[in-house]
Amino acid sequence: MTPGLAGFTASGRDEHAWEESVAGVLAALAAEFELIPERGGEPVGAGRRTWLDTFDWRLHKAGLTLEHVARSGGGELRLTDAATTPAAATPAAATPARAANPAPAANPAAAAAGTVSDPVIAQPVTGWAAARPHLMCELPDGPVASRIGGLLVPRALLPIVAVTSATTTYRLLNADGKTVARLLVERALAGAQRSGPRAIKLAPRLSIAELRGYPGPARRAARLVGAAPGIALAEVPTFAEALTALGRRPGDYSNKVDANITAAMPASGAAAMILLRLLDTIEANVGGVLADTDTEFLHDLRVSVRRSRSALKLFGDALTVAAGPAALTADELAFFAAEFKWVGDLTTPTRDLDVHLLDFDDTAHGLSAAKPDDLEPFRAYLEQRRRREFSALTRGLKSARFTGLTSSWRTRLSTIKNGNTAAAVAGVRSKEGKEAAGETTGCLAAERTRASFAKVARRGAAIGPQSPAESLHDLRKRCKELRYALEFFAPLYDRVAQAKVIGELKRLQDCLGEFQDTEVQIGEIRALATAMLAAGEAPAVTLLAMGEVTAGLANRQRAAREDFGRRFAAFAGIDGQRRMSELLRGKPGIGH
After folding, report:
1. Do 276 and 181 lie in a common domain?
2. Last residue of a domain, one of 359, 392, 420
3. Are 274 and 230 in a shared domain?
4. Containing structural domain, residue 345
């Protein structure tokens, strides 16, 4: 497209102002061209575009935008790569203008193949409902599926926002009565797919379509449009404008703990902010869990529950030193800790079965003595068990106990966050008469992180070749607590120093996780085999195949155990202690 013709938008604050701006454009163009509305000036098209991404915005984070364009008799998926998209093509208003005078592809063969370097990869789809979630297995084979498959699994594609638009077209005629350009005025409604049918009008978008052989008139028309009152260049695509209209933004969900805490903040206030952020994540995922949209909703919910339990253990006592009636009592603290343990226990069976089923195909195709089909009765049994456990999970999440827990927990934390914490800064004594631990967030973070590291170092050093598996399981829990502490207080620390510590800790956690997960899976498979045998649902070939899977898990567990000593020394040895000391000394007052 000719530079300057990419698109404009009415910039007024309301619909009345927008229409006045469009009328001004028409008047300005009518002064230099004869303006003829096509099809009697009636809007045509009524096109519908739906933008899709995962709940955690995996495509957006990868610089990709996926759009479904509804067409007669089907539709088309259009994947845009921000890294290779020309700036002039970014505004959505450019699309109708290009359609009026399409330019040949620079590399038709590459465009047909849908290579990664193409700005847009298109894939026709038939009978594909963009208004509902789709797992990757439901996406038809093609260039779009090939490009995004590795990014999506195991998440589902969700409709993020839909825009229905109609375009009014005007022909611009010169003195000879020849059509030399077109003005396209697109009016659109944005709808929130995930939160109901509400629709919001977007500002009209305008573009000039250049006709072959008449570049001069198109440029002159574009200058007239851009100079009209209340008209501005369309600097953001329709997708971004629609999200903003609905009060959203790309990347507005993350399961990260990113509370805006500072070192000088009272410890009770920071503790409440961290726990509120975790509660936000729990509540954000409940709907996806209940709808069984994809397995990551339950995973994220469980992680935030586990983090909440660790936070209460690490610094829950800070919540008992808030000023006045805002402070939690010891009994309340124990109650909330017990309730979050109940939620964790409630979600465990379904998640364990999800893990088995997610890895099932890889496990089946990794068999050597048995055939993949030999495990199919085992898959059917797992799916049956999951349906039963999922029913129990949904009952629990819909129960008054769970909704009461989240409601009362938010109320108590909000009261502490917003309450008067001046007394805590001054060093209020608890009911037991002891000085409140960590009167500022900086003190609390350093004290609790140091204690967590010392616990990991002490318990890990005591593990030898003959130590029972329980000792490694316990160390894994302590490592998780330390990891969470580093994440909770991340805003207070130097990012480079923190990355070094977390990098080695993660490698140790991976080793311990491999050891524990394989042990748990071995026990579960044996228990499931026994149950299948008792129910008469276990053919001999299936039991043999399950035995081979168990043997493979045992080999992986043995390798993890042998690797433990090296991983632990790398994390908690002399160099590891130095890294932790540098982190905790760090830059005093980071986050001030």
Report:
1. no
2. 420
3. no
4. 257-420
Residue 87: band (very low, low, confident or very high) from pLDDT cuts 50, 70, 90: very low
Distance between CA atoms of 1 and 554, rounded to whole angstroms? Answer: 62
User: Per the structure block, which two tokens stand in for 24?
Assistant: 């001004």
Name the domain boundary from 245, 267, 292: 245
Tokens representing residue 116 in the block = 């990664």
Confidence of residue 84 (pLDDT cuts 50, 70, 90): low
CB atoms within 10 A of CB 488: 29
Which residues are bridge partners to 74 per DSSP?
Answer: 71
CB within 8 A of 225, min separation 6: which ones? Answer: 8, 25, 28, 29, 183, 206, 208, 231
3-state SS class at 304: helix
Could you give phi then psi for residue 204, rounded to 5 degrees? -55, 140
Residues 469 and 284: their CA atoms lie apart, in Å, by: 36
Spatial distance between the Cα atoms of 588 and 494, rounded to a whole number of angstroms: 10
Q: Which residues, listed in sequence order, are joined to residue 54 by a DSSP beta bridge?
A: none
Q: Are 38 and 170 in contact (CB under 8 A)?
A: yes
Number of domains observed in the structure of the chain: 3
- Average pLDDT score over residue span 514-524: 93
What pLDDT sits at residue 73? 75
Residue 173 has a CB neighbour count (10 Å cut-off) of: 16
For the residues of 64-100, what is the DSSP string, one character each?
A: EEEEEEEETTEEEEEEEETTTS-GGG-STTHHHHHHH
Question: What is the predicted pLDDT for the residue at 204?
Answer: 95
Cβ-based neighbours of 578, under 8 Å, separated by 6 or more: none
List, for residues 295-311, the tens digit of each pLDDT value.
999 999 999 999 999 99
User: Are 167 and 45 spatial neighbours (Cβ–Cβ below 8 Å)?
Assistant: yes
**Closest C-alpha to 475, from 462, 485, 487, 465:** 462
Domain-located, residue 416: yes
CATH number of the CATH domain containing 387: 1.40.20.10
Query: CB under 8 Å to 503, separation ≥6 — which residues?
Result: none
**Is the preceding omega at residue 154 within 30 degrees of 0, hence cis?**
yes
